[in-house]
Amino acid sequence: MARIVILLLLTAGLISWYVVRSEAQVFQPISKLDDFLSRVLSSGSKEVDQISTQLQTSDAANTKQEVPPTPTLKPQATGQQLAPISTPIPMETKIIVRPTAKPSAPTFPYISNNDVLTALNQYRSDHRVHQLVEQHNLCEYAEKRVADLIAFGGLDHHQGFTNDFTNGERPSQLENYPGRTIGENLAYQNCKNMTTGESFIASSAPALIEWCFDSSTAGHREAQLNTKFNNACIRNQKGYFVVIFGD
Fold it and tell me: What are the residues whose beta carbons fall under 8 Å from the beta carbon of 239, sequence distance 6 or more?
């Protein structure tokens, strides 16, 4: 724009200069002036067009076209909520094996050791056989044999008694016993009468002596009435009865 202003001022100055000169010279310079002005204006027009083009280019460069942001798709909310997918966790399966409960021991009517000895002596008396006396060594061994039966879980058919006298040696409980002959009777309180074949629970000492032992065909009756025996001792526990005889 400054250049255009300068050109216009120069043009005005030249016109003033030519007018001041004589009238005879006015027409020719004015024709030259027209040519000069035409050139100046043409040159000015080109420069104006260049300046205008530069301005438009500058505006275009300075004015950046805003690019709209790329739309982001957002998940649409629905009426249903999806349950989260859970990763299955392996579970350790433990198998608990409960031990089979052992059947409780049956409850029997109480029978004391002294009651059995009394019933045994009464039985012998009824058969005209002398009385038996309790002896402490025999009692110690009777206690040992009751423990054997409980550990065994039943009557052992005198196997423990036989083992205790292997090689002619006595068990420690009978080392000081003065007699030479030892005998044994075993019974379970839930016994069987070998005469009638009836099983029953002995509820008293006489029933044990007269029904369980007396009806036996395995030598129990003979041991109860043996005239060589002078001593005896009875021990019982959990329904098992042991009678030890000694001469």
Answer: 105, 106, 108, 188, 189, 190
